Amino acid sequence: MDMESLKLMNQDMVKLDRFDGSNFLRWQDKMKFLLTALKIFYILATDFPPIPEDPKPSEDGTLPDQAKVDEVRNQRKQMEKDELLCRGHILNTLCDWLYNYFKQMKTTKEIWEALQFKYQVEEEGTNRFLIAKYLNFKMVDTKPLLVQVHELHVIATKIISLKIQIPEAFQVGAIIAKLPLSWK
Which domain of life is it from (predicted)? Predict the structure, then answer.
């Protein structure tokens, strides 16, 4: 591992919370940022071309240039090193029970895709109930008003992040309609 990667890993900005199965999309975004900053996210890219085998003699029997052979071998070594780093960073941010489950998988890409399959689908399922949660939200006198407005705003922001547009006038009207009876 080069010194630049070590310095970057020791900075507070790249220390990720352990992923315990909740807030997958947030964890995934932070992990993408970390791996991109470390210049190893290419390992997870679906369009990354495989490194070719060692060049073989051409049809006319001439041997390949030794520089090209060495370049291919160095690329393969670097990719193996980056694969190990990428796998380590992903596994390191998983909670213990997830770590024990996913460490059995052979490749980093396999771990990444399995996490996406399981947790992105789960999160999308809970997102379906956001509109109902928004519409059924009730404000009460026992909690501070601004805290409740913030909760409602968080739900609205999640809905908007799903590309469901909520007109501002509707949001204002919803907040007024949800005010506690003592405010009316």
Answer: Eukaryota
Name the token pair of 158: 């999640």
Q: What is the DSSP string of 97-164?
A: HHHHHHTTSSSHHHHHHHHIIIIIHHHHHHHTTHHHHHHH----TTS-HHHHHHHHHHHHHHHHHTT-
Q: What's the one-letter identity of residue 182?
A: S
Element (H, E) at 32: helix 24-37
> pLDDT digits over 58-107, tens only?
677 676 677 777 887 888 888 889 999 999 999 999 999 999 999 999 88
Instruction: Report the half-sphere exposure of 146 (CA within 13 A, side-chain side).
Output: 0
How far apart CA 108 and CA 170 sit, in angstroms, is 45
Rounded to two decimals, the pTM is 0.60
Q: With contact defined as beta carbons under 8 Å apart, do 174 and 152 qualify?
A: yes
152-161 pLDDT per residue, tens: 888 888 888 7
Whether 151 and 134 have beta carbons less than 8 Å apart is answered as no
∠ CA 73-82-53, nearest 5°, is 25
**Coil, helix or strand for 9?**
helix
